[in-house]
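Task: sequence design from structure.
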């Protein structure tokens, strides 16, 4: 496995070491107060690791500390990887971004759209246009998540067994058939809604290739990029390095263990969720962010053309709108004000509206267990944060991370 360690003096990379230490001091309080079990953060600039720090435990009950090779459930940080997989095929001419997905996934033919009524008695109308590949990449397909608890269609997802996970034993193909049988929340392309769209995108990749998603990830992304610790589950010695999963206790918000959700990562899932199924390491995801920062290339290996990465990391919302204007006011892994959305990433449009020190063009995402990353091309900066507290809306970790990293840039 690739070793993760500091490669240069932060001062040589334009980061004040004393100011950078504020990051560790502030984040340490979350562990000291029992609000996080432990965490690991990585700051890189100009392609070199400037700062690696950790605090607390990957398993509080066993007394096992966070280490650089700890395995983390990255949940929705899987989405950018699936988006890259799709764009690998796009570059080979397998499909156009405007192609209807029912060419490969016929269950999504003749979709219906919710208009009124209840979860038990919905009133629907025909979709005015098909779901297209770019709708999946941008979360504008009209699909949803059961955990939103904000719309009758969300309740319909939950009734089918889709809330924080998929029904036991259901394959990705079967999940797509179930989602296709439910109404869309809105007409494709008319709004933004965080959803299972990237899981459907993963199924599209499988059908186009005629191979399971994990095989394609391993062959075309993980092996070329040297991501040796990333997979849909862990076993053997890797399972011993897997962090336990925690949730906030009602009232106190102290982190308490949840093995019911956590143990799923120790066996190969029936459903290979391109929207949230991977387990990874800081070193591996660091390599993925460097590949993105270098516009599709790492260590002499090019997976995507520079123009493709540029297209993926631009705002695709109509009229240059941000998520606040075009999205539904629901949970997502990023704030809505000032942020647009590209092909698999949030994209910062307006730092003033977002009330952040970050740069225009920064692209990012996070995972349900409070993991996060961002890439800032203007500053040639990448930042990673790993912990295992679900849901990610429990604490304002991501915005605080931005404050603490950017104030250290001198």
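Answer:
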């Amino acid at each position: 496995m690739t070793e993760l360690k500091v490669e240069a003096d932060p001062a040589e990379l334009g980061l004040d070491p004393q100011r950078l230490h504020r990051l560790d001091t502030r984040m340490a309080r979350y562990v000291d107060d029992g609000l996080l079990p432990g965490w690991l953060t990585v700051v890189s600039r100009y392609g070199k690791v400037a700062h690696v720090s950790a605090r607390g435990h990957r398993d509080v009950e066993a007394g096992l500390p966070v280490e650089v090779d700890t395995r983390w459930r990255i949940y929705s940080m899987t989405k950018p990887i699936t988006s890259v997989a799709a764009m690998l095929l796009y570059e080979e001419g397998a499909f156009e971004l405007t192609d209807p997905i029912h060419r490969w996934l016929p269950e999504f033919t003749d979709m219906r759209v919710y208009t009124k009524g209840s979860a038990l008695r919905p009133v629907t109308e025909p979709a005015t246009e098909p779901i297209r590949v770019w709708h999946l990449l941008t979360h504008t397909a009209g699909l949803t998540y059961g955990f939103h608890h904000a719309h009758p269609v969300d309740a319909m997802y939950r009734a089918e067994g889709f809330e924080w996970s998929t029904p036991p034993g259901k394959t990705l193909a079967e999940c797509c058939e179930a989602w296709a049988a439910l109404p869309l929340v809105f007409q494709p392309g008319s709004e933004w809604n965080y959803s299972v769209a990237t899981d459907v995108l993963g199924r599209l990749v499988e059908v186009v290739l005629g191979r399971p998603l994990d095989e394609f990830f391993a062959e075309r992304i993980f092996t070329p990029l040297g991501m040796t610790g990333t997979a849909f589950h862990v076993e053997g010695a890797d399972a011993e390095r897997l962090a336990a999963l925690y949730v906030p206790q009602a009232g106190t918000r102290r982190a308490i263990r949840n093995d019911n959700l956590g143990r799923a990562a120790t066996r190969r899932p029936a459903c290979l969720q391109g929207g949230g199924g991977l387990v990874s390491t800081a070193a591996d995801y660091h390599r993925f962010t460097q590949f993105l920062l270098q516009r599709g290339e790492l260590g002499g290996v090019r997976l995507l053309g520079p123009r493709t990465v540029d297209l993926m990391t631009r705002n695709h919302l109509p009229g240059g709108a941000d998520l606040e204007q075009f999205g539904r006011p629901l949970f997502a892994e990023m704030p809505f004000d000032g942020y647009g959305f590209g092909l698999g990433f949030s994209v910062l449009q307006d730092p003033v509206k977002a009330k952040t020190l970050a740069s225009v063009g920064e692209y990012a995402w996070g995972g349900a267990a409070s993991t996060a990353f961002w890439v800032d091309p203007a500053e040639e900066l990448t930042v990673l944060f790993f912990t295992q507290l679900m849901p990610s809306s429990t604490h304002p970790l991501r915005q605080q991370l931005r404050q603490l990293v950017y104030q250290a840039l001198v």
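Residues 17-32 form the longest helix (16 residues).
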